[in-house]
Amino acid sequence: MPEALRVASPRIADFVDVDGVTEVRRRLAQIPREQGRRAAAYSPELAQIWGVIGENLVEGKLVRPAILLAVADTVSAASDTSATSNTADITPDPAHDARREAVLELAVAVEMLHLAFLLHDDVIDHDTVRRGRPNLIARIGREITAEGASDAERRAVGEAAGILAGDLVLSQAHQCLARIDAPADVRRRLLELLQETLQHSVAGELADVGYSLRAHRPSLADVLTMSQSKTGAYTVRLPLLWALIALEADVPDELEDFAAALGLAFQLQDDLLGLFGDPALVGKDPVSDIREGKYTAVMAHASSTPEWAEISSHLGRADITPDDAARVLALLESSGARAAAQDDLERALTDARRIADEAGALRGVLQALVAALTERRS
């Protein structure tokens, strides 16, 4: 497999133009490099922040850009085949290059959006580790505070940097859309979908934080809705629809149901990997979700079991020990909560697979997306 595609799923490699992925990576590296160069003239600290942002972008798996590019390349290939079969004298489409450029900018934008959410999420969850290493909060808090600063002072500076860095990256996502040469109605639809996605993701994150405080016990349906909104809206629905809108292609009615099912599956899998996955692959502190009191589908299932009293006594404890965390994980297993959440995941994947099988020209690429998620380990 070409190196440019190696970090994305091999399942969708056949649907993605390697040159497109390479170009997205180049742009993701160029933006923070250029912004950092400009910032260095008046704020060395901001330049350092852009340096960390750049590292994060280069290390990304490009799941969302890969989805967007795979769908766009599939639609474009089908369109080119149709045009070739209908005429022997192909007249170049003057809008073709503009649409391809729009797809590339949107692929960059969706990765920028993802990083912005990660940066803000680390602040919300008070996490200092990302991908198995100190995150921006930990690094900037250590690097730009005065010698002798307390841990609390370094955390305060680091979390402020996390919020501000997320704002900068989110702004860059909007800049990508601003650069697109597209008809006014296409640009409007792209922007409206971005705003709608932000609304869903923010609502899901807010619900996630509220559920972790457990002022009341949300139902399983509430938790599944939160899960789909928090991550699914921007991980699956946004890149799928952006690709079709940018190419001015029809959006099949069933695509909304597919995006909802696969987006829910993605978050359920994320929750299960966060608790039970291999930390070396997940790159996340396996105790963090328990420490933060995350009320995921696993916890929703556990809440109706006799083991819940002991499980809930440990949730949200900042001082939880590794032994106590291991005990919680064992109880989630023995209570059947893990298996029940796995069943939720399998149902969502079954729904997505059924819709993909009936998706016409998009059938192959949507099937590949479901298969890629089924095999995901990090």
TrEMBL record:
InterPro entries: Isoprenoid_synthase_dom_sf, Polyprenyl_synt, Polyprenyl_synt_CS. The keyword Thylakoid does not apply. It holds the Pfam family polyprenyl_synt. The keyword Ribonucleoprotein does not apply. Coiled coil: none annotated. One of its GO terms (molecular function) is metal ion binding. One of its GO terms (biological process) is isoprenoid biosynthetic process. Its cofactor is Mg(2+). Transmembrane segments: none annotated. Keywords: Magnesium, Metal-binding, Transferase. Belongs to the FPP/GGPP synthase family. This is Polyprenyl synthetase family protein. It comes from Litorihabitans aurantiacus.
